[in-house]
């Protein structure tokens, strides 16, 4: 025992670690000492066979590991923090009273039982354990963190038999991953029935299926990641929490959005006004003039759509559903109705039994159109294959058409079977009937009545001006045919051309001759002006007649029909239309079908039979 006392003396009295201050009123940690310095200082004391008497374990753990309750207000930010009364030697006989500890799954188990001193030549003497010594003994045995001070103190104070958990590992608390949260209600859809504004609800349409936002609206906010809390093994080793995952707003920022650091954090803000769309693959949020949908158009997903911007749909448009907008693109099959106010309508797949109308723009179907109606007032209709369709437009281009009714300014078809086609210009590679349907062609020829009437109105003006000119010329010829006038004009002409040179004696006679015919010459000059005016009127009236005639001829020459190969009977007739009125193809689908399937009086047969080819063009007089 004397050896232990000798070893303890420097530690207990003089050779203290720098992080510890010993005073008469207790043992202190320096307030500015780090946790590592405090742990090393405590270890130096414990391993030097000493212990802290009167230990405040809560302050002790707070300084070493920064765990547990916060320090009392009066101890915070103090230069010295008292945690024990004194440092006392831990003698070997006392240390022998403390048994081994069992560590299982981060928990230290200890069996408390009566303890005795071994005294030579005497029976074992009862002894009592001490909490402060227990902490020192556990430190040496590797239990340096997490002692349950209240439980251990209670067992030691009562002296009862007990097997308890005396220390526990503190598991690290995971942090919180960064997240992106919504901050604007404008990005949410409203699937409530559409309010018609007069107290009624449209159960076929949704209130706001495609949200639209203004510029400079906060859409999303980044919630920064929060660090976790350290844990500790019983040995005092640090258990670091896993690093929380981070996420950047740039990963969801698409076209039409910007990232701004504002008060309250980092936000994704709308840069332009437009419709919101989220790419399902990249999760990027974009804002633009085009509405993009991937769910299709049905009573369940969207209802009927009345849109103000461009629309792109990747799903199908179901039967009895209507999409109304402009610049419409559908990547799925269409069974419903498409109504475009302008711009192109593009169907990437099939149009089955539906309708597509466009007020101003093209209609294009890359798949098959069957039992459908396709009509545009101004624009081209282009199809790969059409079956039993009604089609009209400025220009119609089809790869294969069967049993269709078509009317347009120009029609270009590779193969047409059983169709009824009316157009100004018809170009078909192969044509023929199909089953019970005839192959009917109609060359749209203009009704030139208006031009003929205009010409008839202008011809009297031409004739009147011609007669006026002739009458004036006859009057002038009568005057110039008089002998005195004719002789004077002849002599004056020769004098002017210097064919005759008058002598001084002849000059007065010439002047006297001029005075004699002067009134007649003045009358001739007046008549000459009248003739020129009449000729100008005649030329102007004739010019108007010629212009109308050219317009008439150009209009007539605008019609033609060519069919390269004929299989079966093909009938070509004329069908008149009135220029200047709405286009002949601009009519309801039922009326159009009846128009091209029914012959009317006044039609002229231009070709009939199975013999081809057909190459017809009208004759127009120049």
Morphology call:
elongated
The biggest sheet amounts to: 8 strands, parallel, barrel
Structural class: alpha/beta
End-to-end distance: 141 Å
Query: Runs with pLDDT <50, length 5+?
Result: 1-14, 190-196, 198-208
What is the overall pLDDT average? 83
What strand order characterises the main sheet?
24-25-28-30-32-31-29-26
The portion of residues forming beta strands comes to 35-45%
The strand count comes to: 39
- Looking at how many chains there are and whether they match, the oligomeric state comes to single chain
Rg, Cα atoms, Å: 55 Å
**Relative helix content:** 25-40%
Number of helices: 10
Compose a concise summary of this entry.
The chain has 622 residues and is an alpha/beta fold.
Structural features, described:
- This protein has an eight-stranded parallel barrel with strand order 24-25-28-30-32-31-29-26. Strands 11-15-19-18 form a four-stranded antiparallel β-sheet, with no helix packed on it. It has a three-stranded antiparallel β-sheet with strand order 1-2-4.
- A hairpin with a 2-residue loop joins strand 6 and strand 7.
- The longest helix is centred in the last third of the chain and has 52 residues.
- The protein is an alpha/beta fold and 622 residues long.
- Helix 7 packs antiparallel against helix 9.
- It is 27% helix and 35% strand.
What structural keywords apply?
disordered N terminus; four-stranded antiparallel sheet; 622 residues; alpha/beta; eight-stranded parallel β-barrel; 39 strands; 10 helices
């Amino acid at each position: 025992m004397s050896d232990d006392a000798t070893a303890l003396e420097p530690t207990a009295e003089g050779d203290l670690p720098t992080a510890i201050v010993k005073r008469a009123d207790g043992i202190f940690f320096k307030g500015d000492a780090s946790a590592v310095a405090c742990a090393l200082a405590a270890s130096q004391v414990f391993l030097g066979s000493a212990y802290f008497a009167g230990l405040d374990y809560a302050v002790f753990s707070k300084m070493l590991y920064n765990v547990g309750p916060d320090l009392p207000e009066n101890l915070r930010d103090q230069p010295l923090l008292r945690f024990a009364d004194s440092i006392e030697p831990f003698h070997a006989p006392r240390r022998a009273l403390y048994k081994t500890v069992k560590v299982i799954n981060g928990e230290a188990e200890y069996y408390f039982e009566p303890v005795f001193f071994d005294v030579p030549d005497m029976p074992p003497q009862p002894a009592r354990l001490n909490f402060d010594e227990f902490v020192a003994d556990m430190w040496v045995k590797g239990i340096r963190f997490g002692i349950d001070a209240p439980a251990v103190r209670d067992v030691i104070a009562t002296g009862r038999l007990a097997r308890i958990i005396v220390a526990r590992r503190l598991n690290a608390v995971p942090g919180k991953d960064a997240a992106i949260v919504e901050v604007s209600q404008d990005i949410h859809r409203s699937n409530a029935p559409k309010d018609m504004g007069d107290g009624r609800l449209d159960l076929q349409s949704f209130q706001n299926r495609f949200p639209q936002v203004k510029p400079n609206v906060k859409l999303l906010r980044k919630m920064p990641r929060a660090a976790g809390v350290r844990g500790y093994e019983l040995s005092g080793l640090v258990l670091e929490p896993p690093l929380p995952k981070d996420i950047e707003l740039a990963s969801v920022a698409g076209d039409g959005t910007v990232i701004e650091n504002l008060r309250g954090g980092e936000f994704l803000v709308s840069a332009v006004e437009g419709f919101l769309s989220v790419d399902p693959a990249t999760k990027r949020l974009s804002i633009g003039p085009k509405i993009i949908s991937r769910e299709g158009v049905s009573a369940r997903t969207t209802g009927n759509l009345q849109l103000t911007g461009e629309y792109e749909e990747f799903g199908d448009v179901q039967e009895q559903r209507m999409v109304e907008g402009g610049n419409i693109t559908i990547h799925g099959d269409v069974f419903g109705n498409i109504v475009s106010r302008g711009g192109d309508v593009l169907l990437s797949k099939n149009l089955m039994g539906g309708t597509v109308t466009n007020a101003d723009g093209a209609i294009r179907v890359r798949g098959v159109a069957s039992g459908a109606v396709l009509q545009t007032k101004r624009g081209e209709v282009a199809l790969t294959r059409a079956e039993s369709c009604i089609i009209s437009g400025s220009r119609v281009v089809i790869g294969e058409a069967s049993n269709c009714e078509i009317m347009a300014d120009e029609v270009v078809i590779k193969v047409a079977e059983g169709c009824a086609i009316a157009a100004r210009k018809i170009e078909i590679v192969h044509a023929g009937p199909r089953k019970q349907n005839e192959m009917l062609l109609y060359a749209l020829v203009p009704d030139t009545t208006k031009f003929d009437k205009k010409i008839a109105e202008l011809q009297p003006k031409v004739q009147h001006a011609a007669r006026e000119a002739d009458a004036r010329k006859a009057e002038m010829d009568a005057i110039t045919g008089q002998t005195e006038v004719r002789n004077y004009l002849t002599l004056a002409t020769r004098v002017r051309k210097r064919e005759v040179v008058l002598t001084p004696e002849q000059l007065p006679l010439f002047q006297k001759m001029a005075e004699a015919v002067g009134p007649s010459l003045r009358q001739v000059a007046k008549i000459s002006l009248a003739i020129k005016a009449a000729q100008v009127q005649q030329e102007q009236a004739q010019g108007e007649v010629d212009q109308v005639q050219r317009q008439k001829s150009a209009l007539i020459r605008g019609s033609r029909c060519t069919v390269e190969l004929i299989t079966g009977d093909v009938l070509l007739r004329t069908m008149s239309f009135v220029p200047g009125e709405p286009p002949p193809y601009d009519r309801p689908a039922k009326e159009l079908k009846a128009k091209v399937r029914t012959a009317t009086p006044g039609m002229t047969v231009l070709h009939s039979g199975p013999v081809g080819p057909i190459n017809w063009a009208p004759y127009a007089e120049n």
